[in-house]
Automatic annotation (TrEMBL):
InterPro entries: Aa-tRNA-synt_II (IPR004364), aa-tRNA-synth_II (IPR006195), aa-tRNA-synth_II/BPL/LPL (IPR045864), EpmA (IPR004525), Lys-tRNA-synth_II_C (IPR018149)
GO biological process: lysyl-tRNA aminoacylation
This protein's name: Elongation factor P--(R)-beta-lysine ligase
Domain Aminoacyl-transfer RNA synthetases class-II family profile stretches: 25-337
One GO MF term attached to the UniProt entry: translation elongation factor activity
Length: 337
């Protein structure tokens, strides 16, 4: 049944609606061209990988679209629309490609707001023999190439919590190797500054209550900011910092309080990656009653990865920032009806 609230909205293809959005869409066209030029002159290969994957991405809170692949002999296999092209691109990296990028359509279920759309465009790039600090320079140069001319600042997650919330974040974790730190110390800090937490909240939940209430709205208000060195328990597919085991080689990029990108100094330890995936799927099962399979071919690729770094950047949000659009649908040629 059609959503009555959505059916009452102006249609995205009406002449007036399209005319209003056309300046944003022309800006999008220019930005896409500049992105491809940026990577071409730096000797990156543009690749294209399938949206259909046996595993869609294993972040605990992302919901994938499930489908069934029918084989010619009548057999059926469960597949998913990818939430990111990361797994396939890392396989190519493991196969020997030194620099690659992709502008991919990706899919995330249950997400729709002024800055979210169930189908959107992701730019990802990977560099062999590079660090996450090398990618910070890439971001700075790419932003200049697409028309973001403000200088890009850098801020650690620890310093962000101190600056905007008055909390010594890393002191609330007694064992940096614990994938699920006890939440009591951080919950006490949240209570002290008047941020709500739930009785059953995990450490990560409390982190995001504070982050979303006190920190994220202030990030990038004076120009883009790279928020780096995330707590080790939030490493995802990044490696732990050699300089400080309490944190991992991960950064996110923010502009005007909106996240634009997420980057990793990539983990190349397959056993550790499997432990993280299994932990995340146990969490997903508890929270949402569902789990996704581990891509065993990807696990083989992880063990073959060179030292490398990679980043995913939301193209639609980038266009919004450059063109001054307030809603993601302003910069989409067509919406999911």
């Amino acid at each position: 049944m059609q959503d009555k609230n959505r059916s009452s909205l102006p249609r995205w293809w009406d002449a007036d609606s399209l005319a209003r959005r056309l300046p944003f869409l022309r800006a999008r066209q220019n930005i896409m061209a500049n992105i491809r030029t940026f990577f071409a002159v730096r000797d990156f290969l543009e690749v294209e990988t399938p949206a259909l994957q046996c595993s869609p991405g294993l972040e605990p809170h992302l919901k994938a679209f499930r489908t069934v692949l029918e084989d010619p002999d009548g057999g059926e296999r469960t597949f998913y629309l990818h939430t990111s092209p990361e797994f396939a691109m890392k396989k190519l990296l493991a196969g020997g490609l030194p620099r690659l990028f992709q502008i991919a359509r990706v899919f995330r279920n249950g997400e729709r707001s002024d800055t979210h759309h169930p189908e959107f465009t992701m730019l990802e790039w990977y560099r062999a023999q590079a660090s996450y600090t090398d990618l910070m320079v890439d971001v700075e140069e790419l932003f200049t190439a697409v028309g973001i001319l403000q200088p890009v600042s850098r801020l650690t997650v620890q310093d962000a919590f101190l600056r905007y919330a008055g909390i010594d974040l890393l002191s609330t974790v007694s064992d940096p190797s614990d994938p699920a730190p006890p939440p009591d110390c951080l919950r006490a800090e949240a209570s002290r500054i008047g941020v709500y937490t739930g009785a059953g909240d995990r450490w990560d939940d409390v982190f995001f209550h504070i982050f979303l209430d006190r920190i994220e709205p202030s990030l990038g208000c004076d120009g883009p900011v790279i928020l780096y060195d995330w707590p080790a328990s939030m490493a995802a597919l990044s490696r732990r910092s050699v300089a400080d085991p309490r944190v991992c080689e991960r950064f996110e990029v923010y502009l005007n309080g909106v996240e634009l990108a997420n980057a990793f100094g990539e983990l190349t330890d397959a056993a550790e990656q499997r432990r993280r995936f299994e932990h995340d799927m146990e969490l997903k099962q508890r929270l949402y009653g569902v789990r996704y399979p581990i891509d065993e071919a990807f696990m083989d690729a992880v063990s073959c990865l060179p030292e490398c770094a990679g980043i995913a950047l939301g193209v639609d949000r980038l266009v919004m920032a450059v063109a001054g659009a307030s809603r993601i649908t302003d910069v989409l040629w067509a919406e999911v009806d």
